[in-house]
User: Fold this.
Amino acid sequence: MKKTYVIFVGVLIIFAWPFYDLYQRQLGAIPFLLLAVFFLVVTIKEVKRFKQNNQPKSKHEKKEKIKRNSR
Assistant:
């Protein structure tokens, strides 16, 4: 466990160093932009996966769902 912890901290430092450098140069908005793009991509993937899992299996299920939801 200690070895994985050391590797994790090392990777974290390697990825955090460029962000720290940008903050030192008064360019702190760039990391936030990159994080926003990252979370947008993750969200789009999750929505696609959610839509694929909720597709009706057949036309009969689709009609049944419409009948249940209609008032």
